[in-house]
Amino acid sequence: MEWLRFSNFAIGMLPTGILLCVLTIFLLTLKKKSLATWMLIVYFSVLSILLLSYVVRYSVLSTFIFNTGQISNLIVFGIVAYVLFAYLFQEDYHPRETIIVTVLFSLAALYVYGSIFARYPVMEKTYDFRAHYFTYVYGLRISIVTGLGYVWVILVFFRKTVRASRHGGSESGGQRGSRMYIALVSMVRPRSRKAKSFQALALLTVGMFSISFMYLLMSAELISRETYGFYFNIVGLLTTVAIFIVYTNSTFDPSSFRWKLIGLSLAPGMLVLGILSSTILSFADNSFDAERVLEAEVVKSTLAERKPAKLPAGAVYVASRPAGEGPYSEVYVLEQSRHGGIRASDLVQSDRRERENQFSKSESGFMNSIIDAERERAHFSVTAELGRPELPEMERRFRYFDLHETDSFYLHYDFVHEDRVYEIGYRYTWYREAIHRTALKLFYVIVGTTVIILVLFPLFFYWNLFKIDLRIF
């Protein structure tokens, strides 16, 4: 299966996705489920679909994966369910507002989700080498609706905290200032058990909102995708498990206690495996880089000795271009190649496409930040940015010649010798295979650990905690 290539992001998200599936299955097993429970089931189900779909998208090295993009975008409907859950959980204090807000968020979700279908014919396709998956350029609509949904849920739960604290014994002041002070105190120190559960869910939703905020920071390139992925996996896993525990603490189903024990056993296991897997794959990724940099240093030393550049064992080509032109060039010389289909003109064309993409992206960001700026000023600013000095040497960079042909994907390492920039190119599929070998072992460990916990732990808890020895009577 050459199309299956697990990446570090796929394995990093797998434990959280598995845990969410297990929690969703438990909620489905509850008898006499309320509407609030159904909404939590929908929310957890959509989160499970989101995570597992990204596991698939990060693992399938084929353009077929373009057809699965909208599966991940179902999160906007999960947010609608979570908003409704916030209103209905334990007691709905504002039934009319519940209907109005749910309808508004549903319309927003339908508009955003449907507009993506409408824009498919003109939507840009790309391969995100930072995340290692094929995708459309969706923009930030999904993230904005998701973030607004979480903010509204936070407000709803804090309002319910104040209301439940008042019923739990807090006194209401006669003046406006006094009422506001009591409300703030109630949010910090709720007076009843119900109010405490509302407060806990509000704070946990803040954690979920922070994930949306981190995504915006990543989209603005203020943080790396690796940082976002690590934060997403850790915070997402902890908050969803905590939401599950808060919910089951408010139910009176006796079966929930054993499931909480199983969930509490599975959660730290998945957390440790997620961190461990990310660390191991990060080490494998860095080791791959270190080996390629060493090979590049050997080629550089060979050139310094006035000898012809030799191709490293795994390299496909060595090309050069004039130094001082910035990250892109219109003139390439193919020094050596193991692939007869690679031409210098292919490298030039690849640079042109990447330069146009970067120009369009940078110009759009500039115009959004300075609304009244003239287009000429934006053009000048972006042109100056693209004309900056060469990128740092010996850093992994990517290029492709044909988006629909993964064999035309390459990664390369550059260095400067005298007045030229040399580029050593390797097949991208070779890199993915190297990471896949390690990731596959971790996949088996994660799935095997899950099966062991789900099969053996229920039996252990049944025989040791729930089996009554009638001889004591």
In short:
With 473 residues, this protein is an alpha+beta fold. It is 65% helix and 8% strand.
Structural commentary:
The protein has helices at residues 8-29, 35-57, 69-72, 75-88, 95-119, 141-167, 176-188, 193-219, 225-249, 255-304, 344-369, 375-386, 428-466; strands at 125-128, 133-136, 317-322, 333-337, 397-400, 409-417, 420-427. Strand 5 and strand 6 (409-417) form a beta hairpin. The protein starts with 7 loop residues before the first helix and ends in a 7-residue tail after the last helix. Helix 4 (75-88) runs antiparallel to helix 5, helix 4 packs parallel to helix 6 and helix 10 (255-304) packs antiparallel against helix 13. The chain has a five-stranded antiparallel beta sheet with strand order 4-3-7-6-5. By secondary structure, the protein is of the alpha+beta class. The protein has two domains: 8-253, Rhopdopsin 7-helix transmembrane proteins; 285-431, no CATH class. The radius of gyration is 27 Å and the shape is elongated.
Spatial strand arrangement across the major sheet: 4-3-7-6-5
Mean pLDDT equals 81
Portion of residues in beta strands equals 5-15%
- How many domain regions? 2
Largest sheet descriptor: 5 strands, antiparallel
Give the % helix.
55-70%
- Overall body shape: elongated
Give the number of DSSP strands: 7
CATH class division of the largest domain: Mainly Alpha
What is the radius of gyration computed over CA atoms, rounded to a whole number of angstroms? Answer: 27 Å
Low-confidence residue ranges: 170-174, 362-387, 468-473
Q: Element order, helices and strands?
A: HHHHHEEHHHHHEEHHEEEH
Content-based structural category: alpha+beta
Helix segment count?
A: 13
CATH architecture assignment of the largest domain: Up-down Bundle
Distance between the termini: 61 Å
CATH topology (fold) name of the largest domain: Rhopdopsin 7-helix transmembrane proteins
